[in-house]
Design goal:
A two-stranded antiparallel sheet has the order 1-2. About 0% of the residues have low confidence. Strand 1 and strand 2 form a beta hairpin. The protein is elongated, with a radius of gyration of 70 Å. The protein has 22 helices and two strands. The protein is mainly α.
């Protein structure tokens, strides 16, 4: 029995412990759930308060817009509308506040009811537990109840404080909105008053302008015109300025245009003057209006003079602009080249700079260039007298040439430092010959040892070289290709002969050349010289058949004789010359003559040996007779031998077949053996 009691006590004790353990967890869960619900309620209340504030602000803006429209539509009821708007807005704000406070209270009551329901449910559960648990458990339960109650109260207090803070903030923002809107409404009222005043003033000036129009028939008010004590001219100028800037009211612009206001006065005046000019032209037949002429009350002559002056001024401005552009190109050229002597055809950046500079020099020469422009051109090194500057430049180059070369006879094609100095010097000689060269320039060139008659000087120089040649060689007939002291003396001498033949050589020069032994007909003289050498050869050798390569006293006599034979074969040789050559035994057909000589040697061999089959290596009186006979056989085999020569060779017993020739040679050797 005692054991059973102990077991039951143990079971009861365990259940109590389990209840104690479970109950705090349930209480914590209940507390967590309640806390979440309170937070959700707080968030919901805050969002509703914020939405209400936004809605109220939108309604306030709508009211403000409505009031502004009403002010524009109805100026008379503006002040009443403002009061009604303020009253309505104040009542609306108060109604919104009352509604918002009622909603907040309802939310609080609902939240408190939920909390009380939760507390009642929790209390009932705790009471049920207390019935089955011990006194200790009830004490713990009471402690937990107090704890939960304290926390709930704290949550309620905190939430109530937050709600009060939000209400206070919302109330302050609402008051600020009311104050701001009220200030804006007052400012708009003041601005509207100013606008009304300006409109009244504008209407008065507009009435004055209409009066002017009725009286004068137009709206062309002078700038200082005063109408009824008001400066109507300046007012109208102000309207034109505002119209030009786009600041004028559209209605005002239409009213002004309706009564004939012209916005562009200058253009209208010009058109009016042009119409008067057209009328003058139609009536008079021309447009040359006198300066003092008045057309329809308008000084047409003076207006036309102003148009001409403006056109001339625009033209001058354009010319000056073009001048500045050209000057910049000239400065660029000067910076790059180091001088401003622009060639006449030079183009710089697509602009004909050379031609422009020539025009500036012409203006300077005519004294029509402005002094300021002249000075600016001189600042970049422009030379006005180009010919003089160029002459001085070439003269300096001539002095440098003379110092370097020892003379001033510049070759015609010589270029010195990029300048055609030779051509320039020839031009000075031509000017001197035509009598167009200034005496001072002539003196300066002569001081530099310039020779005016270059051809005469060159002739004298070549003549001195010819004398030097004659002294060394013993004659004056220099060969055509001969060069003496870097001078083509032979070519010069041939040129003198050609000039003599054409009758263009001065008699005094002819006599001086003849005195030095110059032969005018060189070909004839050379022929006589070669003929004398041929005679000497014939006397020494016993014949006149000079070998082609033979040289006699430095003269190619063999070549000369062959030249005579070619002239004979072409029929161009003089009969007298042919007779003289025949007299010393010149053979004209050398090949035929050689064949005859070799044939005579063959006859001699045949008479001595009894046959004409000369061995291949046989030499007869210094002539390779065997080789010659072999050549005749080859000519026979090729059918190129002369028929007369063939018959004559057969007549002396020449055998054409080579193998027969070899057998004959063997027989001859056998007989000798």
């Amino acid at each position: 029995m005692s054991d059973e009691m102990k077991g039951k006590e143990t079971m009861i004790s365990d259940e109590i412990k389990n209840q104690e353990t479970t109950m705090p967890e349930e209480i914590k869960n209940q507390e967590t759930t309640m806390s979440d619900e309170i937070k959700d309620k707080d968030i919901t209340v805050a969002e509703e308060i914020k939405n209400k504030g936004i809605t109220m602000a939108d309604e306030m803006k709508g009211k403000e817009t409505t009031m502004s429209d009403e002010m524009k539509d109805n100026e008379t009821a503006m002040s009443d509308g403002i009061k009604v708007g303020e009253t309505t807005m104040s009542d609306g704000i108060k109604d919104k506040e009352i509604t918002m406070f009622d909603e907040i209270k309802d939310k609080e009551i609902t939240m408190f009811d939920g909390i009380e329901d939760k507390e009642t449910t929790t209390s009932d559960e705790i009471k049920d537990k207390e019935t089955t648990l011990s006194d200790e458990t009830k004490a713990n339960q009471n402690a937990w109840d107090r704890m939960i109650s304290d926390e709930v109260k704290n949550k309620e207090t905190t939430m109530s404080d937050e709600i009060k803070d939000k209400e206070t903030t919302l109330s302050d923002e609402t008051k600020d909105k009311e104050t701001t809107m009220s200030d804006e409404i007052k400012d708009k009222g003041r601005n509207r008053t100013i606008i009304e005043f300006n409109q009244i003033a504008w209407n008065k000036m507009f009435e004055l302008l209409k009066n002017y129009k009725r009286r004068e028939g137009n709206c062309r008010v002078s700038c200082n015109h005063v109408e009824d004590g008001k400066n109507l001219g300046k007012w109208l100028i102000t309207q034109r300025v505002q119209n030009k800037k786009g600041d004028i009211d559209g209605c005002r612009r239409i009213l002004l245009e309706h009564i004939g206001v012209v916005w562009d006065v200058h253009s209208e005046q010009w058109e009016s003057s042009y119409r008067n000019l057209a009328k003058f032209h139609q009536r008079e037949g021309h447009s040359d209006v006198p300066g003092s002429h008045i057309e329809d009350g308008m000084k047409l002559g003076e207006w036309l003079i102003r148009q001409r002056n403006q056109k001339r001024k625009r033209k001058i401005d354009k010319v000056l602009e073009q001048w500045e552009s050209s000057y910049r190109n000239l400065a660029k050229f000067h910076q790059r080249e180091g001088h401003s002597d622009v060639p006449g055809s030079h183009i710089e950046d697509g602009m004909k700079l050379g031609e422009w500079l020539i025009r500036q020099r012409n203006q300077k020469r005519k004294r029509k260039i402005d002094k300021v422009l002249e000075q600016r051109l001189e600042d970049v090194g422009v030379v006005w007298n180009v010919l003089s500057e160029q002459w001085e430049s070439h003269y300096r180059l001539l002095l440098e040439f003379r110092q370097r070369e020892g003379h001033s006879n510049v070759p015609s094609r010589h270029i010195e430092d990029g300048r055609t100095l030779g051509r320039w010097l020839n031009h000075q000689r031509q000017q001197k010959k035509k009598g167009k060269l200034d005496e001072s320039i002539i003196k300066r060139l002569e001081d530099a040892e310039v020779i005016w008659d270059v051809l005469s000087e060159q002739w004298e120089s070549n003549y001195r070289i010819l004398l030097k040649f004659r002294q060394r060689k013993g004659h004056s007939n220099a060969p055509a290709t001969h060069i003496e002291d870097d001078t083509k003396l032979g070519a010069w001498l041939n040129n003198q002969r050609n000039q003599k033949k054409k009758g263009k050589l001065d008699g005094s020069l002819v006599k001086r050349l003849e005195d030095t032994g110059v032969v005018w007909d060189v070909i004839s003289d050379q022929w006589e010289s070669n003929y004398r050498l041929l005679v000497n050869f014939q006397q020494r050798e016993g014949h006149s058949n000079v070998p082609a390569t033979h040289i006699e006293n430095d003269m190619k006599l063999g070549q000369w004789l062959n030249s005579q034979r070619r002239q004979k074969r072409k029929g161009k040789i003089d009969l007298g010359i042919k007779k003289r050559l025949d007299d010393i035994g010149v053979v004209w057909d050398v090949l035929s003559e050689q064949w005859e000589n070799n044939f005579h040697l063959l006859l001699r061999f045949q008479l001595r040996e009894g046959h004409s089959n000369v061995p291949r290596s046989h030499i007869e009186e210094g002539i390779k007779l065997g080789e010659w006979l072999k050549a005749q056989r080859q000519q026979k085999k090729k059918e190129k031998i002369n028929k007369g020569h063939e018959r004559r060779l057969e007549d002396v017993g020449v055998v054409w077949e080579t193998h027969l020739e070899n057998r004959v040679d063997d027989c001859c050797l056998l007989i000798k053996f």
